[in-house]
Amino acid sequence: MNGRHDEGPPEHGGGLSHDLPVLARRRMIRLMAGASLVPLVGCTSEGETPATPSSSPSSSSAGCAEIPEETAGPYPGDGSNGVNVLKESGVVRSDITRSFGDSAGGTADGVPLTITLTVVDAASGCGTPKRGAAVYLWHCDREGAYSLYSEGVTDENYLRGVQETDDEGRVTFRSVFPGCYPGRWPHVHFEVYGSLADATAATSITNTSQLAFPEDVCDTVYATDGYGASVRNLSVLSLEDDGIFRDGHDRQLAAMKGSTGHGYTATLTVPV
Question: Which H/E stretch holds residue 191?
Fold first, then answer.
């Protein structure tokens, strides 16, 4: 997957032309810093709402099954492409549905979604949690727009937040189910940092990847009010054809449970 790029919502411009320099800068910075680009792996578990079958990584001492890291896309908000939300007071939070600070104070609408990532040490065979690491997570809203970048929400910073991993290596974000915009399968971006201090200083990213949602859950969510455009956009897409997930989505596919009435939970294990 190295070299592939998240095109982003076409109506916002940029797209691939933004990703090329963004990804190149990230790789150059990491090479100069001597950082190790350790691939990510996603492990899924069973839930109330069945997800597309996915492969489980090995838990042997030989290490975990690997997937390459992904592009952060043109709307990261981490300083690599313009605005930097990571240095703003208030970015460390679990509820990312609302904007904070001096922004417009808007709230993202949609089906409730709780996202839990478990960061573990790949060298231990996925058996050791990464305590005290940090995750910056962001995604588009129900209309497919990215706060800080997209027209109409440049003054908002909702659906972005940072959490420090607990003793079990977990971070949890309360959000809403993202929409599906033209050209991309529904997804969530995240960056892993060695510590909370690194994350809030927007430095020393160790891993960047994306989480994918199962098709059956997307179909169910998009049948609810407010997701009309997502129904049309998803109808011409597939995980197998998506520019990011087509050669590795099984290991990035979230395990899902829940309902549109009570909200969904998405879980993924991330060895680093």
Answer: strand 187-193
Is 264:49 a contact under the CB 8 Å cutoff?
Answer: yes
DSSP output for 99-166: --TTS---B--SSEEEEEEEEEEGGGTS-EE-TT-EEEEE---TTSPPTTTSTT-TT---SEEEEE--
Instruction: Identify the three-state secondary structure at position 270.
Output: strand
User: What sign has the CA pseudo-torsion 29, 70, 206, 65?
Assistant: negative
Nearest to 243 by CA among 71, 13, 54: 71
58: its two tokens: 């090995």
Q: What angle do CA 221, 271, 161 make, to 5 degrees?
A: 55
Secondary structure of residue 11 in the 3-state scheme? helix
Using alpha carbons, select from 227, 205, 199 the residue that is nearest to residue 272. 205
Structure tokens at 147: 């706060």
- The DSSP call for residue 40 is B
pLDDT digits (tens, 9 = 90+) for 110-157: 999 999 999 998 888 888 999 999 999 999 999 999 999 999 999 999
Report the amino acid identity of residue 215.
E
**126 close to 268: Cβ distance less than 8 angstroms:** no
pLDDT digits (tens, 9 = 90+) for 225-248: 999 999 999 999 999 999 999 887
d(CA 114, CA 23): 28
What are the angstrom distances between the C-alpha of 200 and each of 3, 77, 86, 259? Answer: 27, 12, 5, 34
Q: Supply the pTM of this predicted model.
A: 0.80
* Sheet containing strand 187-193, strands side by side: 160-164, 134-138, 187-193, 205-212
Name 123's Cβ contacts closer than 8 Å, sequence gap at least 6.
63
Separation between Cα atoms, residue 245 and residue 37, nearest integer Å: 19
